Amino acid sequence: MPGHEGRTYVVTGADSGIGEHTARTLEEQGGRVLRCGLGAEMDVRANLGTESGRDLLMKEIAARAPGGLDGLALVAGLTEASADAVHVNYFGTLSVLAGLRPLLRLKEQPRVVIVSSAASLSAGDDDVITACLRGDEEAAGAAAERAVAAGRGGMLYRSSKIALNRWVRQSATAEEWAGTGVVLNVVAPGVVETDTARDELLAAPDEVRMLSAALPQPLGFPGPVQAVADAISWMISAENSFMAGQIVFIDGGADAALRSDKPYSDGVRYGPAAMSRMLFWALRARVASWRRD
């Protein structure tokens, strides 16, 4: 079990579901948790879909943790078929991450986990995803509104999560993150038994059958929330010292059932510049070896 004694964390979306379980788990293991959400019992109440809400959260956290943060669990998200899902899930998450990065860098072993979704295994809206990855919130919002008008609003949740996955894969190994010791990874849960899932996904038997066919979970449908919280607890701990930029599917086997070995069937293909550098250093190493002999 990871130890969190003496470490300070921020958990967004802590008023329900995965966020609530994660906050409780971190506290039970000795961590200090600043809970962020919309409920009255939260340490910080802020709507991450707005600039003012994001600014408020960052200001409040800076005041409550002036010595820095050991980790962030960025769980907050909306499943609704509206542009708000894109504003909260993608831009709200990354705004908080960027704004709290200076507090993370005050600590020796900072860790970040972003919660995505196994829904990201399906295709999303290309216009929304592209605008997200450009960092253009206005264009992403406009593309989301077009998707809603065209009857494709159901794609927005997974589109926002696909964009998060891709951003982390592109960014986690950069100098400002792994290069400065800030470990950044993603957890992508399958369907787990939260209040939101029960109300929105699991209420009708036919919808459950459809969803379980679209997202098969051999280990159980729906899955346990605590399994996701436990994974986040380890990934946000100091013990997670050598993993960066990974998308870890805590999904009852859905990723493997749907994609088998497809993501791993082709090896890495290096470009000409990388090949030249590797050949240069290989030759240098060979010459040095000859000289030693």
What does this entry look like structurally?
The protein is α/β, with parallel strands linked by helices. It has a single domain, classed as NAD(P)-binding Rossmann-like Domain (Rossmann fold), CATH 3.40.50.720. The chain is 48% helix and 11% strand. It has helices at residues 17-28, 51-64, 83-104, 126-134, 137-149, 156-171, 195-200, 205-214, 225-235, 254-259, 272-292, and strands at 8-12, 32-37, 44-45, 71-74, 111-115, 183-189, 247-250. Strands 3-2-1-4-5-6-7 form a seven-stranded parallel β-sheet, with helices on both faces. Helix 3 (83-104) runs antiparallel to helix 5. The longest helix has 22 residues, at 83-104. The radius of gyration is 21 Å and the shape is globular. 42% of the residues are buried. The mean pLDDT is 94.
Under CATH, the homologous superfamily reads NAD(P)-binding Rossmann-like Domain
CATH secondary-structure class? Alpha Beta
Spatial strand sequence of the major β-sheet:
3-2-1-4-5-6-7
Q: How far is it from the N-terminal to the C-terminal residue, by CA?
A: 49 Å
Q: What coarse outline follows from CA principal-axis ratios? A: globular
Helix content: 40-55%
Average pLDDT value?
94
The biggest sheet amounts to: 7 strands, parallel
Question: And the CATH topology?
Answer: Rossmann fold
Q: H/E order of the elements? A: EHEEHEHEHHHEHHHEHH
The CATH architecture category equals 3-Layer(aba) Sandwich
SS summary, helix count: 11
How many strands? 7
Radius of gyration: 21 Å
Oligomerization: single chain
How many individual domains?
1
Q: Could you name the ranges where pLDDT drops below 50 across 5 or more consecutive residues?
A: none
Structural class: alpha/beta
Q: What amount of the residues lies in strands?
A: 5-15%
